[in-house]
Design the sequence.
């Protein structure tokens, strides 16, 4: 057997297994920030390929790219990216109804109470303009407009081709010293004394040794589960969809600055517009819809020409019980998956990679770091899980067995507390820096039809004219800013249009 000695410099050897979005995001970050003290190797197999989905993101990705000094227009050109201001949810509350979860804040909070209390008080005084009228990102999205505003007043994320994004990051990671090895990992070798991972054995018997291994092998989870048996917490009882089919089509219109999530009788469909094409997919629960019907439904609803064959994906929602075990850290789909409804997976990659960078062991792995990493990751995933369940649970749909199941299923106490508190008092609180802030919970709870029974009495302190002025000034400010924004497509054209050669 050939033995690869990865370093003669005494540097810590970090081996990343897998080169999807997770592998290359982790490599780019570690190489950029820690390249001087680590030897970084990434092993991937072109023959196996990546999952080939994951196109819609959330705002923290803007910061991730900035941390890596990635020029925004450059990366957007390279990954055919468009801007995203939120998600349009159609048919979730009930068939024919829609609402928007924007990345912005609705209205203006007062230190004593959130904006919703003033808005609800306004309703009793005849100010019946919808809640949405008070949100800049939402109104801009619906008007199909976008621009970077001074003071970063418009919160946004990207819709991108994740394969192209990974390719972009690969260049950056390799330039910063990452060694890429092409090959199929056939076996993971454990140290017979410690039980830690000692090496990856590639087909053809090449041996890649390391001190710390990052499992980015996707759903296969070759290291963390295959070799170390970390265990998996199955969350299917809360998030019952377990299948998806993805397909790419040519664009038939200018891209809108938002993702669409359109519910159907056993799940939902996505539409994600990029510069050169559109990503489409159907997510469904196989207990209520079979694959052939799901495919037929997807093909029957797409617009434009098919650019790819349908990509059928089965998954189990849940989390790996240990995201970091021994000398192995799971990042990406190997660490868990909670379905793509709020586009949180790439964000979780970013969070895990940043945590790993911050907790990178100086020598031996500290069990305390491991415990901290696992607790932080698990808490973050649980909080996101609750937010996702909300979309299924708080529905008025009873038109199919799937929705009747969702409406009556048990939910975690943490979510029940949030929903009932809001229903009774109109209040919502962000817990421990959770990803989704009050404004997200509010938009989705109201959008799904949860109506508070009361509001904070402090709102009634405003005299009628003050309330009128307060509400009007926000609405007018939003409308004026939106009127001055350029059209999303023309802004992309000027700022980051991808080269024709890349167009499909
Ligand atoms: P993969 O892309 O599967 O990469 C695994 C890597 O491991 C590949 O390089 C592969 O070649 C390598 N590998 C595996 N086995 C071996 C082996 N034996 N030897 C060598 N190499 C090996 N996320 C979002 O943020 N937004 C979205 O809109 C979104 N939509 C999604 C829709 C669906 C239906 C699904 C299932 C997921 C979605 N995600 C989304 C999640 C997103 O796709 C993933 O988080 C992201 O692509 C990262 O995947 P990964 O790198 O962990 O795994």
Sequence:
């Amino acid at each position: 057997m050939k033995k690869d000695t990865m370093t003669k410099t005494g540097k810590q050897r970090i081996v990343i297994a897998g080169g999807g979005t997770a592998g290359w995001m982790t490599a780019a970050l570690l190489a950029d920030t820690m390249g001087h003290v680590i030897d970084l190797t990434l092993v991937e197999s072109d023959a196996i390929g990546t999952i080939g989905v994951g196109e819609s993101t959330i705002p923290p990705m803007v910061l991730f790219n900035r941390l890596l000094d990635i020029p925004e227009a450059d990366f957007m050109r390279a990954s055919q990216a468009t801007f995203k201001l939120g998600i349009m949810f159609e048919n979730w509350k009930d068939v024919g109804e829609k609402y928007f979860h924007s990345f912005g804040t609705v209205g203006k909070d007062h230190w004593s109470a959130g904006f919703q209390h003033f808005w609800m008080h306004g309703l009793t005084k005849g100010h019946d303009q919808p809640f949405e009228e008070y949100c800049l990102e939402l109104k801009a999205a619906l008007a199909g407009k976008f621009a970077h505003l001074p003071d970063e007043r418009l919160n946004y994320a990207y819709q991108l081709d994740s394969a192209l994004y990974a390719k972009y990051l690969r260049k950056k990671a390799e330039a910063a010293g990452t060694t890429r090895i092409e090959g199929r990992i056939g076996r993971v070798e454990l140290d017979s004394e410690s039980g830690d991972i000692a090496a990856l054995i590639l087909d053809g018997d090449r041996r890649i040794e390391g001190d710390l291994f990052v499992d980015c092998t996707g759903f296969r989870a070759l290291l963390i589960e295959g070799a170390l048996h970390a265990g998996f917490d199955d969350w299917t009882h809360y998030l019952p969809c377990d299948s998806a089919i993805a397909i790419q089509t040519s664009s038939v219109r200018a891209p809108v600055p938002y993702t669409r999530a359109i519910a159907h009788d056993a799940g939902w469909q996505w539409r994600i517009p990029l510069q050169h094409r559109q990503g489409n997919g159907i997510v469904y629960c196989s207990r209520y819809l079979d694959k052939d019907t799901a495919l037929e439904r997807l093909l029957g609803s797409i617009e434009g020409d098919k650019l790819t064959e349908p990509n059928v994906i089965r998954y189990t929602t849940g989390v790996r019980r240990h995201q970091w075990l021994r000398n192995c850290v799971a990042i990406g789909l190997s660490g868990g998956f909670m379905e793509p409804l709020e586009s949180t997976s790439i964000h979780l990659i970013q969070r895990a990679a940043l945590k790993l960078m911050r907790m990178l062991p100086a020598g031996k792995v500290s069990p305390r770091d491991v415990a901290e990493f696992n607790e932080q990751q698990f808490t973050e995933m649980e909080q996101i899980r609750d937010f996702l369940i909300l979309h299924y649970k708080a529905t008025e749909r009873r038109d199919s067995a799937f929705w009747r199941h969702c409406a009556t299923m048990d939910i975690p106490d943490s979510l029940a507390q949030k929903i009932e508190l809001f229903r009774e008092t109109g209040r919502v609180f962000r817990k421990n820096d959770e990803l989704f802030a009050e404004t997200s919970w509010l938009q989705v709870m109201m959008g799904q039809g949860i109506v508070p029974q009361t509001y904070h009495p402090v709102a009634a302190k405003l005299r009628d004219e003050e309330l009128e002025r307060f509400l009007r000034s926000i609405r007018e400010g939003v409308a004026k800013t939106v009127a001055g924004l350029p059209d999303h497509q023309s802004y992309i054209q000027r700022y980051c249009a991808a080269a024709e050669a890349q167009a499909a």
